[in-house]
TrEMBL record:
Its EC number is 4.2.1.84. Residues 16-197 form the Nitrile hydratase alpha/Thiocyanate hydrolase gamma domain. Keywords: Lyase, Metal-binding. InterPro entries: CN_Hdrase_a/SCN_Hdrase_g_sf, CN_Hdrtase_a/SCN_Hdrlase_g, CN_Hdrtase_asu/SCN_Hdrlase_gsu, Nitrile_hydratase_asu. It catalyses: an aliphatic primary amide = an aliphatic nitrile + H2O. It holds the Pfam family NHase_alpha. It comes from Albidovulum sediminis. Belongs to the nitrile hydratase subunit alpha family. Signal peptide: none annotated. This is nitrile hydratase. GO terms for molecular function: nitrile hydratase activity.
Length: 204
């Protein structure tokens, strides 16, 4: 018998991803499997309370405070916790520092392990099969596609994030930022620069 697509459960969902999510939320709520208030609280947390701005605070502190940078090298998770930043998916963080000799880049080859408390929700490209495979095989080509061209002598080190260890890249501090305070420094730090697929921005 031919398969009738109209009987398939997926045929009940709209094609647009946002509408599909809303439809699934409605179905699960009606079945009593999801508490809308709890779901809203989770979404608000990851949209407003955690995210790249927190990771940028860590980077800015590392740039401006040698003692904090030393603490990050010794125990990144503990050092980050002194700034009041912690939570699920961020229990075991290792900070890796970019230098003129080495550029660090993070990938999760098995799934999409990612330091959520520091960087928020992972971008779609981070979870894609293409990024997960190519970041290991041809990191310089991948970086070039992100607009990052490294000096010839600078090597690329790729870190494979796992459920046990997640990585935070500390990008190199841009030149001409000696007089900036931590808030101004944090504004130069992007999410991509903390994954290693970008560089810190230049001061205005």
């Amino acid at each position: 018998m031919p398969h009738d697509h109209h009987d398939h459960p997926h045929s009940l969902l709209p094609s647009d991803p946002a509408l599909r999510v809303k439809a699934l939320e409605t179905i699960l709520t009606r079945k009593g499997l999801v508490d809308p208030a709890a779901l809203d609280a989770i979404l608000e947390t990851y949209e407003k309370k955690v995210g790249p701005h927190l990771g940028a605070r860590v980077v800015a502190r590392a740039w401006s405070d040698p003692a904090f940078m030393a603490a990050l090298r010794q125990d990144s998770t503990a050092a980050i916790a002194t700034l009041g930043i912690s939570g699920r998916q961020g229990e075991h963080v290792v900070a890796v520092e970019n230098t003129p000799e080495t550029h660090n880049m993070v990938v999760c080859t098995l799934c999409s392990c990612y330091p959520w408390p520091l960087l928020g929700i992972p971008p779609a490209w981070y979870k894609s099969d293409a990024y997960r495979a190519r970041a290991v095989r041809e990191p310089r080509k991948v970086l070039a596609e992100f607009g990052v061209t490294l000096p010839e002598g600078q090597k690329v080190r790729v870190w494979d994030s796992t459920a046990e260890v997640r990585y935070l890249v500390i990008p190199m501090r841009p030149e001409g930022t000696e007089g900036l305070d931590e808030a101004q420094l944090a504004a130069l730090v992007s999410r991509d620069s903390m994954i290693g697929t970008g560089l810190a921005g230049a001061p205005a």
